[in-house]
Amino acid sequence: MSICSQYFPEEPKAPVVATQEHPSVKSKVGIASLGKVFDSRGVYFVADYQKSNGNYIADVDGNVYLDVYAQIASIPLGYNNPVLHEVAQSDKMIRAIIDRPALGNFPGKDAEEIISEILKVAPKGQDKVWSALSGADANELAFKATFFWYQAQKRGYNTEFSSEEVSSVMHNQAPGSPELAILSFERAFHGRLFASGSTTCSKPIHKLDMPAFKWPKAQFPSYKYPLDANVEANKKEDARCLAIVEELFKTWSVPIAGVLVEPIQSEGGDNHASAEFFQGLRDITLKHGALLIMDEVQTGVGATGKMWGHEHFNLSPPPDLVTFSKKFQSAGYFFHDPEIVPNFAYRQFNTWCGDPARMILAGAIGQEIVKHDLSSQAARVGAYLFKKLEAVQSKYPEYMRDLRGKDRATFIAWSLKDAAARNKFLVDMKSVGVNIGGCADDSVRLRPTLVFEEKHADILVAAIEKVLSGY
C-alpha cells in the first residue's frame, strides 16, 4: 500500500467539478463578506478544509480540486494528515500553544528536544538553528546575523563596542550603523518585509512605495532549453553571471557582507542554475570574506528530491546559512559557524524567538519524510511526470515552452506564449478540477505535496491536455 493510501484511505479518486464558475456563488459571497474586514482581493476561492483530503482541496461550492499548488508550496504531507493531527493534539503541542514561551528568556524543559528534532533533518554541514516567524523574517534575521558576523571579523569577535560605535548608532550613523550590503539577484524573491523587500526583484507589486536599501543585484543565469542541447551556451551564461558577481564585489560603493540566492528562483520564474554556478558563488564569497545565504524557503523540505535543494550541488564548503519555512510549517535559519551567533546576548532576539508549536510540527514533518523516504518518492514521481509533460510539450509547443525541472522531483515549471495565455490557463485548469499556480509573468509552476503519486500525475497530465486541446 502506498504511503498516500496509508495516510488517506478516503482520498478522492478524481476531482469533482460541481460548478461552471471558479470561484462560484458561495465563494463569491464569502469573498465579498470577508472583504469588509480583511483585504480579500487576492482570494481565488473559499476553501472547506474539513472536506479537503490528501492531495485534494475542497471549496465551499462543492468543487474538489487536485491541488498541485498546495498553499503556495507549503503543504508537505497532504490535507488533514492523520499523523500531524495526532501531533497537534499532544500535550506538548497544547502547552506550546497556550503557554507560548519567550524562548530567549524562558525556554521550556522540552526546548532542546524540540530543536533537536528539527536538526535531525538539517542540511549537510549545519548543526545549529535560529527560529523565526516566516520566510521573510528568516531571511531578515539571516541578514542581521551576516552583518553582525562581518563586523565582528573586523573588530574581533569578543571585542567590546567602541564609544563612537555606541553613540553613533543611536543616530543611525556610522560606525555604529555601518554601510554594508547584501547581494541578491534579478528575478529573485526573498520576502515582502523591508530588508527582504530590498533583495526581492521578481515583481514591482511586491515592493512599490517601500523605501529600499541600495543593495546590488546581479544577473541570475537565463538558460536555453532543453539543457542537453545547449550545454556550451549555458556554460557561457554561468561564466557571464559569475563575472558580474565578481565585478560587483570589486566595485560596489559599500562592502558586500553576504550573497543571498535561491537554489531555484521560484516566484521569479522557476529559473535554474548549475552546480558549477553555485560553486562559483561559494568560491567568490570565500575570496571576498562574505557569507553565502541559501534561501530554501520554497525549495527545502524534500521539494526537489533531496531534503534541501542546494544539496544537489555538493557545495564545498557548505553554505554559511540556510533559511527555511513553507513546507516545514516553521521558519528560521540553519548554520554551523559558532561565530555566526552574535558576540553578545540580546542582539538576535525578540519576545518569542520563533514559535515552539510550529517547531514541534516541523520536527514531526521531518520525521515522516525520513521514515517514508518521501524525498525519493518525490524524485521518482517527478521523473515520471516530467517525461509525460515532455510529450505534451511536443504536441503543444506554443503553450508549453522551456519545460524545466528535470531531475528536480516535482519542482517543475514551463512557460506559455504570454501572460494573458498563462492567466487564462490557470483559470481554465480549475474548470477541469485542478488548482495550479503561476510564477513570473508567463510561467506555470507545480508545487504538489510530497505524497503526490503517479496516479495524481496521470490526472494532472490528462487535465492539462484537455485544456490545451481547446486552445
UniProtKB/TrEMBL annotation:
**Superkingdom, taxonomy of origin:** Eukaryota
Is the keyword Transferase in the record?
yes
EC number assigned by the record: 2.6.1.19
Q: Which GO terms describe its molecular function?
A: 4-aminobutyrate:2-oxoglutarate transaminase activity; pyridoxal phosphate binding
State which residue ranges cross the membrane: none
- Designated name of the protein: 4-aminobutyrate aminotransferase
**Which cofactors does this protein require?**
pyridoxal 5'-phosphate
Is Ribonucleoprotein among this UniProt entry's keywords? no
What reaction is this protein's catalytic activity?
4-aminobutanoate + 2-oxoglutarate = succinate semialdehyde + L-glutamate
Q: What family is it from?
A: Belongs to the class-III pyridoxal-phosphate-dependent aminotransferase family.
Read off the Pfam families from this record.
Answer: Aminotran_3
Concerning Gene3D superfamilies, the annotation shows: Aspartate Aminotransferase, domain 1, Type I PLP-dependent aspartate aminotransferase-like (Major domain)
GO biological process, alphabetically ordered: gamma-aminobutyric acid catabolic process
Q: What's in the GO CC field? A: cytosol; mitochondrion
**Keywords carried by this UniProt record:** Aminotransferase, Pyridoxal phosphate, Transferase
Q: How does it assemble?
A: Homodimer and homotetramer.
Q: Which SUPFAM superfamilies match?
A: PLP-dependent transferases (SSF53383)
Instruction: Read off the InterPro entries from this record.
Output: 4NH2But_aminotransferase_euk (IPR004631), Aminotrans_3 (IPR005814), Aminotrans_3_PPA_site (IPR049704), PyrdxlP-dep_Trfase (IPR015424), PyrdxlP-dep_Trfase_major (IPR015421), PyrdxlP-dep_Trfase_small (IPR015422)
> Which taxonomic lineage does the organism of this UniProt entry have?
Eukaryota, Fungi, Dikarya, Ascomycota, Saccharomycotina
